[in-house]
UniProtKB/TrEMBL annotation:
Keywords noted in UniProt: Cytoplasm, Glycosyltransferase, Purine salvage, Transferase
InterPro entries: PRTase-like (IPR029057), PRTase_dom (IPR000836), Pur/Pyrimidine_PRTase (IPR050118), Xanthine_PRibTrfase (IPR010079)
Originating species: Oscillochloris trichoides DG-6
Name of the protein in its database record: Xanthine phosphoribosyltransferase
Keyword tRNA processing set for record: no
GO biological process: purine ribonucleoside salvage; xanthine metabolic process
GO molecular function ontology, one term from the record: xanthine phosphoribosyltransferase activity
EC nos: 2.4.2.22
Amino acid sequence: MPLDTPFAPLVARILAEATVIDDRIVKIDHFLNHRIDPHLMGAMGAELARRIAPFQPDLLLTAEASGIAPALAVALQSGLPLVYAKKYAPNVEPPEFSRLVPSPTKGGTTRLVIAQRYLPAGARVAMIDDFLANGRTALALAEIVAEAQADLVVAGFLVEKCFQGGRHSLSERNIPVTTLAQIERLEAGRVVMREAE
């Protein structure tokens, strides 16, 4: 199965329930990342776990906060440990890896931090997150993995906003990407999904 085969339950929920704002923002936080539908999240976790398994990761990595739910769902299905990059807090045990990430929705920047002991050199890492949009968070995590001398073997996302081009920064690094739902564009107040290839 191709890595971007649409996951029908998620696609159906997006098409039926998404709110589109100014043909720029798609809001599905009422079931995905603010209020979470546990049955759907569990099913998505199982599907992503199945898709990343051929890459033989031994560690999952995500970013606080909205990436934690999907990454935990994948961890429960795969039996792999999960590390998440904290938004900067002074209680992260040094030494640490960190990156500044611009926030497209809130403005400003966020510092993501991981204690070095939790991201060992040589680890085979699968990145998991809720959205792939402009790719800034994904790129920051990829840079942290490289700095740790670990190997980012695959990146998995629930939803990709194709029109924002975030996949490009991962493709340039030869990182395979899998997504469960691909939004081609937002048009006239509605979501247009990418057709299965």
